[in-house]
Amino acid sequence: MTTALFYLFAALLIGSALFVVLNRNPMYSVVALVFGFANLAGIYFLLEAYFIGALQVLVYAGAIMVLFLFVVMLLDVKPDKPRRGLVHLDRWWFAILVVLFLGLLLGIVPGAVRLITSVPAGHEADIGNVERVGQALFTSYLLPFEVAALLLTVALIGTVFLAKRKI
Amino acid sequence: MVVPLHHIIAIASLLFSIGVLGVLFRRNAIIVFMSIEIMLNAVNLAFVAFSNYHGNVHGQVFVFFTMTLAAAEVAVGLAIIISLFRNLQTSDITEIHNLKN
Amino acid sequence: MTAPIYLITLLPLIGFLINGLLGRFLTERQSGMVASGTVLGSFLISAQLTMGLMTRPGKNPHFVQTLFTWIEAGDLQIQAGYWFDALAAVMALVVTGVGLLIHIYSIGYMRGDPGVRRYFAFMNLFIFMMLNLVLADNLALLFLGWEGVGLCSYLLIGFWFQDESKARAGMKAFIVNRVGDAGFIIAMVLLYHQFGTLNIQQLANAAPFALAGRAFFTAVTLLLFLGATGKSAQIPLHIWLPDAMAGPTPVSALIHAATMVTAGVYLIARNSVLFTLAPATMNTIATIGILTAFLAASMAITQKDIKKVLAYSTISQLGYMFTAVGVGAFSAGIFHLMTHAFFKGLLFLGAGSVIHGLGGEQNIDNMGGLKKHMPSTHLTMLVGVLAITGVPGLSGFFSKDEILWGAFVRYEGFSWIWLVGVITAGMTAFYMFRLLFRTFYGQPRWSNQLHPHESPSVMTLPLILLAFLSILGGYVGVPEVLGGMNHFHHLLEPVVAISPWGLAGGHEASHFMELLAMFISTVAALGGIYYAYKVYILQPRMADELRDKLPGLYKLSFNKYYVDEFYGAAVVRPLVAFSQVLWTWFDDRVIDGLVNGSAALIGSGSRLIRQLQSGLIQHYAAFILGGVIVIMAIIYAS
Amino acid sequence: MIDMFELLAIIIKVLVVFAGTLVGIMIMTLAERRVAGFIQYRLGPNRVGFGGMLQPIADGLKFFSKEDVIPGQANRPLFLLAPLAVMIPALMTFAVIPFGAPMEIAGRVVKLQVADINIGLLYILALTSIGVYGLVLAGWSAGSKYPQLGGLRSSAQLISYELAMGLAIIGVIMISGGLTLNQIIAYQQETGWNIWKQPIAAFIFLITIYAETNRLPFDLTEAEQELVGGYHTEYSAFKFAMFFLSEYANMITAAAFMVCLFFGGWDVPFIDEAALGGWGVLLSVASFLGKTAFFLFLYILVRWTLPRFRYDQLMRLGWKFLLPLALLNVFLTGLVLAVKG
User: What is A1-79's CATH number?
Assistant: First the structure.
């Protein structure tokens, strides 16, 4: 059942991601992306990464995407107009590049991964729960953690500065 | 977990490519930004998959940091987009080229 | 237990920092006290170290102290270190001792000047740099001091920089010194290349066994001598020193008479081992030294500015010192350096006192009859003049005669160098007494508004002390022929190289010759005095008659042989003309052409490449993606 | 793999919780009007059924039978999506709340809780934050000014108070050392209710749940005088019913959450439920329901007692008072824990 669930989530994730990129209305893109992230959270749960899954919903869906939603709503972004002019020509070689990239990615990565998986890996219990992640965060990753806190503070100040009309 | 690791990674690759697609083809700055988020999440997925496979927690810690970074990045990035929009009345990146010439 | 050497230099540095940074919080007097106090401290420590040196056993007693690794780049490693031996002791004592007296004198002389704190800061910095110069155990640190004193000299000559001519004089000194410094630097590079060290002792130990030939040493020593020529104002680089008199008189006394200008002599004495390996250089030094002595003396005869007379006299005396080291009488050169520091310091300070008393008047034509107005100054000046003249019993006599005797021995008899030396001695006597007579004797020629007065005791006290030193300073080196022990010579013997021509060679056998030479030079000096007396006191109109009778010679001397004009014509004007050409043709066409051409090239190139800079993020992202694809393709292929 | 028994248990629990929530909502709608009547010296609805007992059903039927209007300027897909986006998280949240002591059936222990996941609290917070979308989308998609302003206000309010709420919960997590509500309840069974140990957190939490559920005195989103009806102005009939239901569902969940965090959950003081067997379970459920009912009653009481805040007052209260207070609480808790070792 988990396997089936995984493929379901994966399909929904890919589908909503494609929808984000391909449809013209930014509002739909945001909603689709929230939905996609919810599915990604589901995959995280299936991969026993409960904490990350919860964070995915809490931070990505609940905070980051709300911000996107606000911006789209407040700026009243109109759906894209069809392309005109010079830029039009770029589409072809952009497309070629993306196809090439995906082809190479799918050509290399699964093979490489299969090489890795041929070596059996050790397994620890309960890797996904908050306690384990928290322990790693506050011991081996303490400094990055503090730096991340600092980064957020800086971002906070920077955002206030940027968003204020007049300082 | 019954799903083979390389399937998950393939899905992550696909997701990443979709993000690239969005960055290359969309002109709306916000959508481009969202495509970048998709790319970040594709990498996160790979991290979690490997973390699950190797049975240790480090991959998830990385995802944690990516999320922190993404939060900071989105906050600042969207603030920039807002001030751009305020000044140029557009969020179409093909029309934002003041630094050209 | 002796004090650490670095304290000697540290104290003036502290004084410099206090006066330089916190000067505004100090009163004028406090500023002077700080400056003098730190120099006094240095003097006491130097004296204490010298005492320690006396009781130290060994052939060449010394203290050594390595402070820290100063420069470290690849193989190049230069330790900042101090080396305190007899030579350094003499120099340190002279610098701090005379420096102390001049600092004290300055408190009186500089009173009321708005820049007095700056003045004392520079003076302390000068003492610091000078001490680094004399105490350095390697050429690099010595060069630091060398440049440092040059800087201070520049700063102090142009102390009253509001006056453009004075600022220009500072500039001139700086630029002329640069010519010599170029030689110094090249010499250092050559030495480092050859020996892999700049430590003076290591160089001295290694040099006699070096594989390099005589030509190498000749080149190196000539380059070093070029440096010395610049710093010590020898022909042909002497032109800056008279102009340097633009600075405050105590500065002239300290820097441009007693200490800095003698650095060249010190440099040669310090590296005497290298110089003795290059006889050609030695001959050059002796020749240039004696020529300088003679020509400078002949210029001094006609100068009217009291400080200019002393400046040329200084050049002349420096010429004597170079003659001394040139003939291998290193200790005699240093001995004269010391006594000269005493009496020339005294003379300058006395001149300063006169200028002070006359409210800034420097022309001796406008002086005269000051004897009764400034008794102390007159008396001390008289002692100084007698000392420089070489009247038996005063310091100048002993040191000058040792030099002349060195020249006599070196060239085995009555050589032309010795002869010129004797003649110069006579001329020295003449122009010094001319100065004395014109200043203190005869009818007053100053304007009625002036009321000459004796200087305050803070100025006369150093004068009196220096007068005593000028009298007694010579007795540390009374030659054996006069029944003395020549302590000074024996003190320096282990430090300086033994001259290949040997001062002592056949010494006992020629006592008679030494006495005879001494007698001749004394007679020359006395003759000079008498002639001066005759010209300026007995027949006051004779001076003018002489001038009218020998207009060519007079003009030549008065205009300093037109050297400045010659440089103006031979160096400065062609340089200006050449620069003009460079500016109008080379710069405009070639350089600008190159620059504009390259700019145009880059411009057209960028116009091509700029097509890539579309300003579209997508294009950039696509380029990145392309790069990633290439990398991935390479991985995939391999 | 999940065996049949567990699957069955889960299905039954889901049904029970779902039905229970719906019943609770029905009771709440009635209770609200009756209590309002009581406070205002009138009777309230008392005609339908036995003393008005069937009034909620009548209301429901009315909603179903009304005309479903979609405004012309609305964005149809999102307009339809919004009520769902509000409703689904509201109903899902209850899944991690244990509503009674573990029950023993056929030799197996069944927890009276739909899902005991080890990140229970995070789950609740996550779903709460998801709830914002419904409001914003509802406000935006209607294509009209007032709903949009209402949506913006409510989302800003939710985001602001979520922070203080999360920080208040952190104090509880710190002392009880667990992220699941079961652990927190077990901790309270052992050492007494958290209300005694975390009074500041409880105070903050009580205020924030009023804000989070958009209830008076924080119901600025639907401030009738200013915004007509808030984000759901343009909704009618069944879609409006969904907003209506979710609001009450959220209230119930919030009250239950409050009980679990600070009032021992299903714990009955001084009684060992496990020793009483089936009766103990029943007692615990009753205790849980009773406590929750009390807080729901408090909701209604507050609604008809306190005046509405002004928007700037609301924001100032959230950011300048509650948030620092919550931080202070976290700090103090940490200090006490550190001192106690």
Answer: 1.20.120.1200
**Position C286 pLDDT exceeds 80:** yes
Evaluate whether ipTM surpasses 0.85.
no
Tell me the longest C-alpha to C-alpha distance in chain A: 60
Tell me, what's the pLDDT at A12?
93
Residue D154 to residue D128: CA distance in whole angstroms: 13
Each domain of chain A, given as residue ranges in start order, spans: 1-79
Q: Smallest Cβ distance to B6: which of A18, A72, A117?
A: A117
Report the CATH number at residue B41: 1.10.287.3510
| Residue C80, strand partner residues | C68
Domain coverage including residue B37: 5-100
User: What per-residue confidence (pLDDT) applies to A57?
Assistant: 87
State the smallest CA–CA distance between residue A24 and chain B in angstroms: 9
Judged by a CB distance cut-off of 8 A, whether residue A6 touches chain D is no
DSSP-derived letter for residue B2 is -
Q: Does residue D218 carry a pLDDT above 80? A: no
Verify whether the Cβ–Cβ distance B24 to C615 is below 8 Å: no
What residues in A contact B39, CB-CB < 8 Å? none
Summarize the confidence of residues D27-55 as an average pLDDT: 82
Checking if the pLDDT of C504 tops 60, the result is: no
> Range with the lowest mean pLDDT among C269-283, C310-324, C494-508?
C494-508
Of C245, A124, C438, C255, nearest to B52 (Cα)?
A124
**pLDDT score for B98:** 63
Task: Return the axis-axis angle of helices C330-357 and C306-326, rounded to nearest 10°.
Answer: 180
The owner of tokens 């690791």 is B5
pLDDT over threshold 50, residue D303: yes
Interface of A with C in 86-115 (CB under 8 A): 87, 90, 93-94, 97-98, 100-101, 104-105, 107-108
Angle subtended at Cα C128 by Cα C125 and Cα C133, rounded to the nearest 5 degrees: 125
User: How close is the nearest chain A Cα to the Cα of C108, in Å?
Assistant: 60
Nearest-CB residue to B24 (from C614, C615, C621): C621
The pLDDT > 90 percentage for chain C reads 0
* A130 in D contact zone (CB under 8 Å): yes
| Type and span of the H or E element at C64 | strand C63-73
From the list C616, C628, C635, which residue is nearest A101 (CB)? C628
Q: What pLDDT sits at residue C241? A: 79
In the predicted model, residues of chain A with pLDDT beneath 50 are 85-86, 167
Per-residue pLDDT of C242-267, as tens digits, reads 777 877 888 888 877 778 888 888 88
Q: Which residues of B42-80 are buried (b: 16+ CB within 10 A; e: fewer)?
A: bbbbbbbbbbbbbebbbbbbbbbbbbbebbbbbbbbbbb
Give the tens place of pLDDT for each residue, C472-496. Answer: 877 877 776 666 667 777 777 777 7
Is A62's CB within 8 Å of D126's CB?
yes
Residues of C in contact with B32 (CB under 8 A): 617
Inform me whether the C-beta atom of residue C613 falls under 8 Å from chain B C-beta atoms. yes
Q: Check C614 against B100: CB less than 8 A apart.
A: yes
In chain C, domain spans:
1-195, 278-558, 566-637
Do A31 and D130 lie within an 8 Å CB cutoff? no
Q: Alpha-carbon distance C237 to C254, whole Å?
A: 20
